[in-house]
Amino acid sequence: MTYQDTLARWQQADLPADLAAELKQLSPAEQEDAFYQNLPFGTAGMRGQMGVGTNRINVVMVALVTEALAAYIDQSGSAAKKAGVVIAFDSRQHSKEFAQVASRVLSAHGIKVYRFSSLRPTPELSFSVRHLKAFAGIMITASHNPKQDNGYKVYGADGGQMVPQAVQAVIDGMAAVENGFTIAQDETEANVQVVDDELDNAYLAEVKTVSVDQNLIQKEGADLKFVYTPLHGTGQYIGEKALQQAGFTNYTIVKEQAELDGDFKTVKKPNPEDPAALSLAIEYAKKQAADLVVATDPDADRMGAAVRLADGSYQVLSGNQIAGLMVNYLLAAKKKNQTLPENGAIVTSIVSSRFASEIAKNYGVATLDVLTGFKYIAAMIDRFEEKKDYTYLFGFEESFGYLVKPFAHDKDAIQALVLFAEMAAYYKEKGQSFADGLKELYDQYGYFEEKTVAFDFPGINGHEEMAALMTKFRNQKLATVGDQLVLATQDFANQTQIDRAGAEKKLPQPKANVLKYWLADGSWIALRPSGTEPKLKLYLGVVADSQVEADAKLQTFEAVMEEKIQA
Q: Is 30 helix (H, G, I), strand (E, B) or coil?
């Protein structure tokens, strides 16, 4: 079927008024972009621009993907239908509407649905799937994306994002639906149960266990002064409750950003990875001489932070720096109270810093690397529980995602909020700042610096252009980057690592379209097409003896790789 055929079907359909009006206004080029494909279902579900068309997210596409999920649950048997699906949503435009459509499609199949009546964080959805022993979960969110986007994340019974086999079943199910406009919806919601306080309380009870040293919080928590911004999202409700129950009360919430607003009017992007998103919170902090700033994204699965320096300015930390500090604090505390297990392990992604790994090694703790996507960290946690070969201690991704305790199986900014505040209390008791603590770690382990650069490939040919670039790099077989030799090349698409001498070894991770280069000085570079956006991501990680040297390396490697990508 051509995009013109699909367009004609939509033009003849009884669309909601907003979609019908938008459809009439599309230019020919906009029509092609809106209908040339179904919005891809990638590593974390379906995410994209809201609007009319199959390449957009709207009530029609939400019904379509839910129908495919329902078919998968039907095939899994009556027990799966009875176990049901938990549904939550964030503060974005149309999120509540999309959650209701998903509920009604599932209910029409006789599938039990547990739905929150108002917005909740992604990690609480992950926890709720496990707590209720549900078959699956749906989170309506585009996480930290711009305001025009929304998304549809699907979770498995373990509370982690759906594994590849289940994702493929949903993709196949979407392709099998002949007409998305004939999907049945149960307007009575006969199989839908609203859940709120019970799950909030159960989740918060687990969050309480994240604290490592309650005596420290009792001593320093009331004096610790910080600013918190939920960036117009779900953290405003649960995040404050989590902080207060832990014993942190001397904080200020950014009033303008505590307002639930799907337009995110105070920020260009509601993304704690972007220093600009913390600007308003830092203004608050400067007026109060606060010790730190913390921010959560709209669905509260990512946390960013800025810390006060001696001159009164604020340093925005990277996700890798936050992870390194957390790992050091956790492991030091466990060693001190003699609870550090002999088989302890942290889990991280193949494109995250080696900083935390070096710290873990010093404590006799292993690091296991997984593919990008927190579902792979969740799968590793499940493996630990099954095989008992490692004890899970911490998981993180460079993109500001952390998981302290595995009662949720996705990144959890609410847990991170509590632990980060506790770390601040720890350094305050020592008469130090976070910056002091970070410098101590760099002096001990080396100066680690990382950067992610995204290259946009929008439009119909975007995915083909990215694929061609990856093929070009595979054929080039890089020997040097700048003045550094490439000691080994890892190609996760064929699960092999080849060193300079030609020796080959098998990689343990599943197949993925990722290339990673290990350099002679311990630095590394990776290339990966995004699974949720039309972007090619370049990851750079360097280590040096000083901050100046690390910055210089990073700048050199970025320039070399950018030239190769754009050649």
A: helix
Q: Give me the pLDDT at residue 462, please.
A: 84
pTM, to two decimals: 0.94
User: What whole-number distance in Å separates Cα of residue 94 and Cα of residue 148?
Assistant: 11
Q: What is the pLDDT of residues 72-98, one digit of tens each?
A: 999 999 999 999 999 999 999 999 999
Phi, psi angles (nearest 5°) of residue 60: -70, -45
**Residue holding tokens 């329902």?**
70
- Which pair of structure tokens corresponds to residue 80? 């799966």
CA 142 to chain CA mean position, Å: 10
DSSP state of 161: B
Separation of alpha carbons 533 and 536, rounded Å? 9
Q: What is the pLDDT of residues 202-256, one digit of tens each?
A: 999 999 999 999 899 988 888 899 999 999 999 988 999 999 999 999 999 999 9
Taking CA atoms, 30 is separated from 22, 37, 52, 226, in Å, by 11, 13, 10, 46
Residue 180 is given by DSSP the state G
Pairwise CA distance, residues 151 & 47, whole Å: 4
Pairwise CA distance, residues 109 & 190, whole Å: 11
- Rounded to 5 degrees, φ, ψ at 104 are -70, -35
Please name which of 408, 405, 342 lies closest in space to residue 375, comparing C-alpha atoms.
408
Q: In percent, how much of the chain has pLDDT > 90?
A: 91
Question: Known catalytic residues?
Answer: 143
280-305 as b/e: b if 16+ CB within 10 A: bbbebbeeeebbbbbbbbbbbbbbbb
Q: Is the dihedral of CA 375, 377, 382, 386 positive or negative?
A: positive
In the three-class reduction of DSSP (H, G, I as helix; E, B as strand; rest coil), residue 345 is classed as strand
CB 72 within 8 A of CB 166: yes
**Token couple for 380:** 């590793």
**Dist. CA 58–CA 70, nearest whole Å:** 18
- 127: nearest Cα among 118, 145, 139, 117: 139
Contact in structure between 255 and 236 (CB atoms under 8 Å): no
155 touches 125 (CB < 8 A): yes
Q: What is the mean pLDDT of residues 516-537?
A: 91
SS3 453: strand
Nearest to 149, CA basis, from 455, 530, 533, 452: 533
Side chain identity, residue 535: K
236, 413 in Cβ contact below 8 A? no
Report the C-alpha gap between 95 and 451 in whole angstroms.
32
Q: Would you put residue 396 in left (φ > 0), alpha (ψ -120 to 50) or beta?
A: beta
